[in-house]
Amino acid sequence: MDEKIRVREKLSYTSGLLGQNMLYNFMAMYIMFFFTDLLGISAAVATAIIVIASLWDAVNDPLMGMVADKTRTRWGKFRPYLIFGPLILAVTTILCYVHFDLDSTATIIIAATCYILWGMAYTICDIPIWAISSVVSKNQNEKNKMVTLGKIGGTVGTAIVTVGSIMIINSFGGEREATAYTTTAIILTVVATIMMIITGLTLRERIFPKKEEVVPIRKNIQTITKNKPLIMLMIALLIVNLVNGIRQSVQMYFVVYVWGDSGQLTNVGISLIVGMILGMAITPKIIKMYDKKKIFFASCLFGAIACAIPFFVGGENILFGLIFLGISFFFTGVTSVVTVSMLIDAIDYSEWKLGFRGEGLVFSTNTFLTKLSSAMGRGIIGIGLILMQYTEGQAVTTTTQNGFSAMMYLIPAICFLLTMIPLYFFKISYEDKQKIQVMLEEKYSQRGA
């Protein structure tokens, strides 16, 4: 009988992803604004830095995944990266929010260097913390619970930063004071690093290949290239990740230029907390009753409607906008849990069809897509800033209000709808899942693992 995951493991995994997402979302929310409005970098150059760095970071993800898949230590494949990686991430996060008060050229070089290093450090932590969810238990329900807990932890981390970071920034000088961002980064980094290291020290890996079963890189790549359901799912993930990717990058501009109050970031965070946690909390129960693909489809459809309504009707009303943001966050919460559960299904499908799992490569490709989406999202924001001829601290105009409203509401709605196209071609039948479960049970009972 499968050993159940200990309560302290579940708690540490939840808190680890809470801490990690605090740092990720602090970066996603403020780095563009910090570059343009605090460092004085032009919108075009800031966009180029962030997009190029994000693309480079995304390229590193599959490489890190293959490294993790080939890692063999007495602690496991993924745990070592969770113990030591957060320290590197902490340093690079803080450096990204330091104003070195140099000339414009030096400022651009340092900003670009720090941001690139941050992305590489984040990769070291991000891939292992998600990939480990597929090896902490042999029981599918236990793995689904861990995925849900991880997503809830990540959402709470996102919400804490969305709600609380602007309060800390305002406490140390406000949104136009560079040292306020530095101080906030230090506070968040200390808390997040401790949480992530505890995760690495606490979790156990219960599914692992024998030492002689290291899969060659060329063969490991087949985990993706010869797994059609996984390919379709990843295309869908690339598009749906744009929903939050665009919102995270634009929300600071949105609350300042559309709602006229940076303090409204707190209320956006509350809508995110309520919406996403409710969505994620209800998803495991829904998964037991309905097909995951159908759940994903429905969430995309209703998410698109919830995004579009405030753009066309009453979006200038803050309460109305917050309500529909909360509803759309609910459906985003559903998709976030369903997609990771579907990824685990695709990994099991790979083992059934190809004879090996390749968790590290699959989850690294997933983070690659997340970062590629982030790069695309920031590119969209950057193009919007350029088209609006945005300059630091510019006056509010109808053009800026309409532009930032479209980025906050309309473009995410379109992304939800486009996600449904590749999702239609994701096909792992119920019969296939039954055969896969039997195969896994027989395989691991023979190993005595």
From TrEMBL:
One of its GO terms (molecular function) is symporter activity. The keyword Transmembrane helix applies. It is found in: Cell membrane. One of its GO terms (cellular component) is plasma membrane. GO terms for biological process: carbohydrate transport; sodium ion transport. Its main location: membrane. Pfam families: MFS_2 (PF13347). InterPro entries: MFS_2 (IPR039672), MFS_trans_sf (IPR036259), Na/Gal_symport (IPR001927), Na/Gal_symport_CS (IPR018043). Keywords: Cell membrane, Membrane, Symport, Transmembrane, Transmembrane helix, Transport. It is a multi-pass membrane protein. The chain crosses the membrane at residues 12-33, 39-59, 80-100, 106-131, 152-172, 178-203, 229-246, 266-283, 295-313, 319-347, 368-387, 407-426. This is Sugar (Glycoside-Pentoside-Hexuronide) transporter. It comes from Ornithinibacillus halophilus.
